[in-house]
């Protein structure tokens, strides 16, 4: 079984897997439209995490994890709790296209998508409003800022050819609100 992650699963899967591949799925855009009152927020200040929006001409980059044997039941049980019960996500099967050039056929993968029908769905907002909400939100998995910056770093380092204007616009809005939060390695070495 392959499981496609496009949010925190790209850096913190939380389950055992046999192999992983960076790649993309077609027909979806990543959006910070899902509320989170557990992992990256609270009931009082819900965080913003990503979901997928059907979008014919788009593709979303992430990581697919291969799970085999005993890993399958354990990973699906874990993800059902993490993504479905606590997160409000539904599952779908999608065609995953690995970044590697030697793989010709897409791989069928399971993906978790939050839809507007779940109670935590927040929907669209301006990049500035999303960034402002992220700045004040924190949950049991850490601060919502970490979620945004780790996802932006993943895209920058593992998928430099891919564009994700929504993600990078929110990162830019966050940096303009709190410029002291964003340090480059060079600026850290200078201090």
Secondary structure elements and their pairing?
Blueprint: E1 2-5, E2 19-36, E3 47-66, H1 70-85, E4 89-98, E5 107-114, H2 127-135, E6 138-139, E7 142-143, H3 144-158, H4 165-177, H5 185-190
Parallel strand pairs: 1-5
Antiparallel strand pairs: 1-3, 2-3, 2-4, 4-5, 6-7
Give a brief outline of the structure:
One of its GO terms (molecular function) is transferase activity. With 191 residues, the protein is α+β, with helices and mostly antiparallel strands. The chain has helices at 70-85, 127-135, 144-158, 165-177, 185-190; strands at residues 2-5, 19-36, 47-66, 89-98, 107-114, 138-139, 142-143.
Characterization of this structure:
The N and C termini lie far apart (47 Å). Mean pLDDT is 92; it is low at 184-191. This protein is 31% helix and 34% strand. The chain is built from five helices and seven strands; from the N terminus they run βββαββαββααα. The protein has 191 residues and is α+β, with helices and mostly antiparallel strands. The protein has one domain: Hypothetical upf0131 protein ytfp (Roll). GO terms for molecular function: gamma-glutamylcyclotransferase activity; glutathione specific gamma-glutamylcyclotransferase activity; transferase activity. It catalyses: glutathione = L-cysteinylglycine + 5-oxo-L-proline. Keywords: Apoptosis, Cytoplasm, Golgi apparatus, Lyase, Neurogenesis, Notch signaling pathway, Transferase, Unfolded protein response.
